[in-house]
Every structure is written in structure tokens, then in C-alpha cells.
Amino acid sequence: MTSTTTTVNTPRSTLARIIAAGTHQRVLAFASLIVLLIGFSIASPNFMQASNMIAILQATSVNGVLAVAVTLVIITGGIDLSVGTMMTFCAVITGVVLTYAGMPLLLGVVAAIATGALAGSLSGTFVAKMKIPPFIATLGMMLILKGLSLVISGTRPIYFNDTPGFSEISRGSLIGNLIPALPIPNGVLILFIVAALTAYILNRTVLGRYCFALGSNEESVRLSGVNTDRWKIAIYALAGAIVGIAGLLIASRLNSAQPALGLGYELEAIAAVVIGGTSLSGGRGSILGSLIGALIMAVLTNGLRVLSVAQEWQTVVTGAIIILAVYADMMRRKKSN
Amino acid sequence: MSYLVEMKGIEKRFPGVHALKSVQFSLKPGEVHALMGENGAGKSTLMKIMSGIYARDGGEMFVDGNPVTPDSPRAAQDLGIGIIHQELSLMNDLTAAQNVLIGREPRRSFGRLDEAALNKKTAEIFASLQLAMDPRTQVSTQTIARQQLIEIAKALSYNPRVLIMDEPTAALNDAEIAELFKVIERLKADGVGIVYISHRMDEIKRIADRVTILRDGAYIDTVDAADTPLSKIIQLMVGREVTQNAPVFPDTSQSPVALEVRNLSRGKDVRDVSFDVRKGEILGFAGLMGAGRTEVARIIFGADPRDAGEILVGGQPVNIRTPHAAVDAGIGYLSEDRKHFGLAVDMTVRANIAMANMDQFTNRAGVLDEAAMKRIAVKYIERLGIRTPSDMQDVRLLSGGNQQKVVIAKWLLRDCDVLIFDEPTRGIDVGAKSEIYALLEDLAAQGRAIIVISSELPEVMRLSHRIAVMCEGRLTGILPGGANTTQEDIMELATQRESALVGAEETR
Questions:
Q1: How far is B68 from chain A, CA to nearest CA, in Å?
Q2: Helices (H), A21-82
Q3: Of A22, A98, A182, B330, which sits 20 to 30 A from B368 (CA to CA)?
Q4: For A337, which residue in chain B has the nearest alpha carbon?
Q5: pLDDT value at position B131?
Q6: What's the pLDDT at B502?
Q7: Backbone angles phi, psi at B5, to 5 degrees
Q8: Rounded to 5, what percent of chain B is helix, strand, coil?
Q9: Domains of chain A with bracketed CATH
Q10: H-only helix segments in B291-429
């Protein structure tokens, strides 16, 4: 590579730049996570146990994957309210393919991801082609998908008892088989793989570049001769495909597709994204931030439970954290200006 | 004679507006062709048709003599036509290189980006512009002028044969304009044809070869820039003679002081600024971009906190911490950015005029008195000569000059004794400008104290009874208004940097 022939006057390694890019955004969230971990360990000796750490990671997996999906859409300046019920819809379709039609496991996996991609591209089309504001378009999709899940399943859960290995998707542990001392569930492994891949797409591919560009100044991208509609649909479709993976994770964990489930997950995912420092006005954000955001939420819930705080209060604390996180981010940004 | 681009009989209609009526335009290789006209004359519309953003409703367009119909910005780029838009249209969160090559990123397999090649290509373009900038610089960290240069680099990256520049100097200071003109000269030498849209008359003389004038969507004339006097061009633009009488200033030196500012400071932006304005006086503020003029105004108005300093209104010290307190003290501030801060553009003229004074129009239960609002709105529409079909017209449908009058009406209703105008004629055409000037003089004659911040020196000199000049946050001097002060006097103070000042003090 002859990249050193440029007239760039501050040579830095690629790695250094990746770390530096948007670091300040995440530092705060990361510091909060560390503070929470230390705080809870001091408060309760049960908190810092390996089994509890794994429980936290397991609890993060579904929300984390959803947060990764929503991050893409939010960076474009949009929002996706449909990810919760879309996740359920994907799970139900998987149930139909595996349990009703008796297809092999791999087809069920493909069905979940394809269903998500399709539903996402539909949202994307509403937003890009029909110019419906993302909030409304995905609110509509949220209800449509919730209704369809109930219709298709006949409002009854679909169990995966006939598909051997399905529950392994989330609950098994490939790593644990290789290294018995590290029984990290597959669900967590999948979360990290999805996050890493999406981070790569976001920072290293054309699709990712247009996520930031659209969120930064959509009209300008359009006037530069870019087919913004097509890219927007592609971004929503990718987010949908990732939601499909979340659908697999939750169905596997419950060993069933629960058609009534889903509502509320979208808000948890958006909360994780916001805590992670991604700007709701678009143009700025990171997958790592959203991952940390999702972890903070899981640590909070778990830690408060270990301390025997009532569940009602856990919700109150989460709400307060969201407001604090955004306020802290705004203060920091004001100072840096 | 061979034209690079030729447009004939161009027609364009928007709902309710005949925007272009059989307009013609031609561009030769290596020429700068200025497109002049008041706001709404159709300049930008014509150029948007040329650059594929709008489709024409009628007429013909030729590139190198071949008929063409660019139906998208991409198609126009393929024909070699590039445009630099009036409003900066960069993506602030991206780097310079990512902006310059947006849509044409060097790619590797699977849609992966080749960031090294991206930066290298951009560095080459910057080098050809003699622009010293790291391609990886984030755009939002750059000054407006540097962003403008990134925008130009972006347009040049398409290797255009035709470059349209829509008000490229609106946000630049004189030194930066000189830089831009050097770039334009180099492009000319390479045979690029440049369409230049500007409201600044002096620039036309400096760089244009030919001038085409549009008025109300109609083609008026194309003249040679070198041997056509500016007055003639202005006359063609407005369709009437614009008289420029030497201003006569009233003597206000004995009037009571309306506003006094002592030792105002805020970080590096404003450093130890002191001045006063008397009743009936217009005090102009001149200086380069970023000299701290707007910052001073915002502190006086309570929009920004101050580190130190005193503000006295009518001789009494006042503690202004919020805009609300400023208004109570009788100070009004008309922001340079009308659309963002001054007006609710989607609301009616009536609603906007009443906006800052709702108490006057509500009864105890909080119900609005529309009849009273209408009375006041109609009164101000007449008094200020706001051209609007009715007081129920949405403000966004008015021209820039009339929008500015609505802002002024809003503040007059508050009965402020001190009015601060920040760039009152930005984006307003020649005809409406003189109306705004007359209005400001009128307000002063009524005994109000007026502060005018303007980046256009002729405007400051035309209006101001006294001229305060700022440089790098300091007030470097206050000059008398009128014929005795020249542009050079002002520029000397406006560029008096700190090092020079220290030297001056030592010799004292």
C-alpha cells in the first residue's frame, strides 16, 4: 500500500484513528459502566461472581442486538419504533417454518433474517419513497407487525420442541465447549459478532458512510448525485436483518415464539443507543457506544436486583439514567464548542 | 463563436409563480459570466435548471452545441457542470475528504471503502487549490471560509468545465475573497467557464467578463463588464434609477446617552469593550468575520453570559442576564439569522408581529384578541410598507426584505429605546435595502438609539453617524461617520491585530 504518499501531515495508525474517532462520545458511558460495576461489587459480594457476570451478558444479548440495529437508523437521522414487534414477527415466522412446516434449522435461521430484512426494507420504502416521517412510518410498522404476529400464530405461542438444537442458538456455549472455564452463552457470542460486523460496516463501507452522511445533511448527499432513497432503504433493511437475529435469540432463549411479546423492547433499545452517546438528530454515533449503553442498562437492572431493590424502582432508575446520560453528553458538547 | 453552454427560451413555473420567462444565457470557455438580479429575479432557478436540480418547462439547452436535458445533478455532472450552492451544503460530521468525494468513494470489494485512496485523492485536489488542509479534518471544526473552500474542492473534483458559484463570498472576509478570486483566475486560465452569482457590485467589476441581468424572471440584457458602469447595471436590475445621495447626519453629540457599555469581556471573543450610543444616533459596527461584533450584541442582549463589564441604560446600571431582562430594559436585538432566530416562518404576518408582545393581546383567561392583533398588524404593514397580500399571509412566502420588516415591526411593538440590528440587509436585494436604510434612519429620527452590525463596508458608511471597529474581540477605534472616513481607515482598524497594538503602545 502506498498510503504514505499523501500530503497528510499528521500520520497516525489506522487503529489509533478508529479508537480516536468519536472516543469522547463513549468515554462517559464507559466510565459510568465501570463506576456502576465497582459500586455494585462494593455494595454486594454476590455481584462480582462469574455466574452473575454471565447472567448480565445473557440479559444484554437481545437488547444489545436490537440496539445495534436501531443505531444504524438513528445515525441516519431516523428512528425505528418497530424493532420490538419486528423481532417477535421474525420469531413467529421462524416458528411457522420450523414447527409448522418442519423445515431444517438452517432454513429457520435464514427465514428470520430474511423476514427482518424484508420488513425493514418496507419501513425504509415508507420513509424514503413515500416521505413518511420515520417516527410515523415505523409506528405504523410496529402495529402492523404486532397484529400480523398474533394473526399468523393464532395468538398462541409456537414451541420449538420438534427442532433439536434450536435452544442451543442462545443457551448453548461454543466457547464453553472449547474452554470449560469460560461458559459464555452463544447468545452473548452472537451479540459481539453482530456488533463487530455492524461496526465494520458502519465505519468501513459505503453503506456506513452514507448512514453518517444522510444524518449529517441529507439534501447535500442527494445533490451530490447519490441515490439517497436506495441507500436509505438498504440501511433500514440491514437494521431489519439484525432484528431478525434478535428474533432468533429471544425465540431460542424462550424455546418458543411468543406473539404477544415485543412491545417495549424498541424503547429499551433506543434508550441503550442514547445512553451510548449516539445523537438522536443523526450524523453521530457508534455501535460500541450502544453496546455499552445496553450493558449499563443490564448492569443496573441486575445490580439493583442483587441489592433487593424492588423492580418498580429499577424502572425509575433507568429512566433517570437516560435523562442524566443525555444531559451529561450535552454539557460535554457545549464545553467542547 | 462556440459556447460551452447555451440556454434559450427557458421557461419555469412553480405553483402560482412564473419563475422564468423565456430566459437566455450563454457561457464561453474561460470566462466569468456574472448573473445579476434582485432576489426572486430567477438567478438561482436558472442555475438549478442548468445543473439538473430542476427540470425546465420549456426552452432549449446546449452543451458544446449538442441539445441536452440534464434531469439530475448526476446527469449535469456527467456533462461537466458543477455547482457550488448558496447555502453551504456540507456534511458537518464527516471529514473534508469524505465530503469532497461523497458518492464517488474509492471502493474495494464488498462495498468496503478505501480510506487511504480517498484521502490521497482529496489531498491532490487540495494541493491543486493550494489549500493547506488535512483531508481528515472534520468539517464542523473549520471556519465558514475554509468550509467554502472544501465546497469548491468538492465541485472541482468532478473536473467540471462549467462551474456555477451561487453567492460564494457571502460569508467571506476581504482576504478570503482575494484567495477565492485567485482560484477563479486559475480556473479561467484552464478554460473553465464560470457562472458567478453575487449581490456585491464591487466584485462584478473585479472578476466578471460579461454580465447578464434578470428581473422578475425575465431576461433583460447581457453587457460587457469592463465598459458598463455599475450604475447602469443596477439600473437594469431594479428597472429604475437608484439614487445614492450623500447621507446627511444629524448632530446627536448633545443628546442623552441611551446605552453605555463599560469594559465588557467574555473569554477571547470580547475583550474590554466600552462604548456608548446616544438617543437618535446610529452607531455602526464594522470588522471582519469573527471580530466579536455579534458576540458583543449577544452579551448586551443577555443571550450569552459575560465575564466582566457593566451595562447602563439611560444612565442607570442594569443587570441583564437573560434576553427577557434586556427587553424589559428596552433593548431589542434583531439577529443576523432571521429564519432561525427572528421569525416563525410558517406562521402568519399577524402572528409574528404579535409574537413578542402577547400580553398586549390576551385577556385574563389567556384568550387571544385576534381583532386587536389584526389592528396592530395592519398598522405596521402600512407604516413599514410591508408588501404582503394580507396580514394572514405566511411569512415564509414574503421576500427577504419584507421578512426583515416583519422582524422590525415585531420589535417596534415592544417599544425598545435601543435596537441592535445584526446584518439587517443580509440576503436582501438592492431595492429593499434602501427601504430598510430609510426605516433605520426614521427610527433614529424618532429618538431611538440604533446599533447596526454589518460586514458590508458601504452599508456601515452609508448609515452610521459613528463607526465602531472591532478586531479579534477588541474595539480598535471609533471613527466619525460621513465623507471624512474612508474604507481604508476602517480596514486599518479592522486588521489591527494585537501584536501591532502592543508595538503602538510601546512607542507612545
A1: 18
A2: 23-43, 50-75
A3: B330
A4: B141
A5: 82
A6: 45
A7: -130, 140
A8: 35, 25, 35
A9: 23-38+45-336 (1.10.3470)
A10: 293-300, 323-328, 349-355, 370-384, 400-413
Return the residue in B47, B93, B131 with the most chain A beta carbons within 10 A, the one to mutate for interface testing: B93
CA-CA-CA-CA torsion sign (B439, B444, B449, B451): positive
E-assigned strands of B126-192? 162-166
Quote the cell numbers at residue B434.
Answer: 434602501
Contacts of A224 in chain B (CB under 8 A): 73, 102-103, 154
Q: What radius of gyration do chain B's Cα atoms show?
A: 25
Per-residue pLDDT of A92-123, as tens digits, reads 999 999 999 999 999 999 999 999 999 999 99
Cα B172 from Cα B182, distance rounded (Å): 14
For residue A132, the model assigns a pLDDT of 95
The distance in angstroms from the start CA to the end CA of chain A is 37
pLDDT tens for B165-174 read 988 877 777 7
Nearest to A124 by CA among A111, A142, A137: A137
pLDDT tens string A49-65: 889 999 999 999 999 99
% of chain B at pLDDT higher than 70: 93
pLDDT for res B249: 79
The set of cell numbers assigned to B463 is: 448609515
A207 contacts in chain B (CB < 8 Å): 111
What are the φ/ψ torsions at residue A137 (nearest 5 degrees)?
-60, -45
Instruction: List strand residue ranges (DSSP E) for B2-151, in order.
Output: 5-14, 17-27, 32-36, 58-63, 66-67, 81-84
Distance from CA of B48 to the nearest CA of A (A): 11
Cα–Cα nearest to B478, from B194, B202, B249, B276:
B276
In the predicted model, what is the mean pLDDT of chain B? 86
Domains of chain B: 5-238 (3.40.50.300), 249-330+416-508 (3.40.50.300), 340-414 (no CATH)
Label residue A68 by pLDDT band (50, 70, 90): very high
When CB atoms are compared, the residue of A9, A207, A209 closest to B134 is A9
Q: Which residues contact A210 (CB under 8 A, 6 or more apart)?
A: A76, A221, A226, A228, A231, A235
pLDDT at B243 over 70: no
| Residue B219 main-chain phi, psi, to 5 deg | -75, 130
Give per-residue pLDDT as tens, A228-259.
899 999 999 999 999 999 999 999 999 999 99
pLDDT tens track for B405-460: 888 888 888 878 999 999 888 777 777 788 888 889 989 998 999 999 998 778 88
B322 touches B277 (CB < 8 A): no
ipTM for this prediction: 0.70
* Per-residue pLDDT, B340: 63
Find residue B422's DSSP bridge partners: B453
What's the number of CA atoms in the CB half-sphere (13 Å) around residue A185?
24
The three cell numbers of residue B424 are 439587517
